[in-house]
């Protein structure tokens, strides 16, 4: 089983972060019954000093190099990932995509309808590379901007509705898609370090959303339990 994390700045993380990818790796290492790999063409964190994805200083230096692989980028969304997912899934032979995208699209690039179309393109192209690929999609978690920008907050809500409809329309037995549940207790004042990006508690909650969906729907892994750090 080959897992690939796909996401924006909340997924790649900045230099010095653990990342929710790390939390998910810990979960898989302690609960997944069977062989698995984490795959992807990138391993870096985002270095905010260099203003580039060149960081290697994860909060836990024992995070194995192979487990650091991903397809995530600071400032990248569905708009950027849809054109490259087919070649990446094919090259990495990914079986399960854990996808957290949309906030950056809605904030800077596309409206909710356009973003949903890019999500559908992503799904179609991932399947073109692997007709049996499975996907778990996380709804957008509105950030602090949504508190004062009502149109942006409305676009986040609208996109989540369209994403849920896309999952319902496109789910299939040979290539299932799950819509993960947004963590009910997720609070931007407590679970992020800047109103957008997850801190340690937020990382655990994002990992738990994916782990819970995967375990409940497909029987993969076990219930998520907060591990060290």
Give a quick precis of the structure:
This protein is α/β, with parallel strands linked by helices and 229 residues long. 42% of the residues lie in helices and 13% in strands. Helix 7 links the parallel strand 7 and strand 8.
Detailed description of the structure:
The radius of gyration is 16 Å and the shape is globular. It is an alpha/beta fold. The chain has helices at residues 9-12, 20-31, 78-81, 85-92, 103-109, 112-129, 150-170, 188-191, 200-218, and strands at 2-7, 37-38, 45-47, 52-55, 71-72, 96-100, 134-138, 177-179. The protein contains nine helices and eight strands. It is 42% helix and 13% strand. It has a single domain, classed as SGNH hydrolase (Rossmann fold, 3-Layer(aba) Sandwich). The strands form two sheets. Strands 1, 2, 5, 6, 7 and 8 form a six-stranded parallel sheet that branches. The mean pLDDT is 96. Strand 3 (45-47) and strand 4 form a beta hairpin. Helix 4 (85-92) packs parallel to helix 6 and helix 6 (112-129) runs parallel beside helix 7 (150-170).
Helix content: 40-55%
CATH domain class = Alpha Beta
pLDDT under 50 segments (min length 5)? none
SSE order? EHHEEEEHHEHHEHEHH
**Beta-strand content bin:** 5-15%
List the helices and strands and how they pair.
Layout: E1 2-7, H1 9-12, H2 20-31, E2 37-38, E3 45-47, E4 52-55, E5 71-72, H3 78-81, H4 85-92, E6 96-100, H5 103-109, H6 112-129, E7 134-138, H7 150-170, E8 177-179, H8 188-191, H9 200-218
Parallel strand pairs: 1-2, 1-5, 1-6, 6-7, 7-8
Antiparallel strand pairs: 3-4
């Amino acid at each position: 089983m080959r897992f690939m994390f796909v996401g924006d700045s909340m997924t790649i993380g900045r230099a010095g972060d653990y990342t929710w990818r790390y939390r998910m790796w810990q979960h898989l290492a302690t609960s997944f019954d069977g062989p698995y790999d984490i795959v992807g063409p990138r391993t870096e964190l985002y270095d905010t000093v260099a203003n580039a994805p060149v960081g290697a200083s994860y909060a836990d230096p024992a995070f194995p190099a192979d487990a650091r692989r991903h397809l995530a980028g600071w400032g990248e969304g569905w708009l950027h990932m849809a054109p490259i997912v087919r070649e990446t899934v094919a090259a990495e032979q990914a079986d399960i995509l854990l996808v957290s995208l949309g906030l950056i699209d809605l904030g800077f690039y596309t409206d909710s309808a356009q973003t949903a179309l890019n999500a559908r393109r992503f799904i179609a192209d991932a399947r073109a590379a692997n007709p049996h690929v499975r996907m778990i999609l996380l709804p957008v978690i509105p950030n602090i901007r949504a508190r004062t920008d009502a149109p942006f907050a409305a676009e986040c809500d609208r996109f989540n509705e369209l994403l849920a409809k896309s999952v319902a329309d496109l789910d299939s037995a040979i290539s299932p898609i799950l819509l993960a549940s947004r963590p009910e207790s997720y609070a931007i004042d407590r679970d992020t370090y800047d109103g957008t990006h997850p801190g340690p508690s937020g990382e655990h909650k994002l990992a738990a959303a994916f782990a819970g969906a995967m375990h409940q729907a497909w029987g993969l892994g076990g219930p998520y339990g907060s591990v060290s750090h």
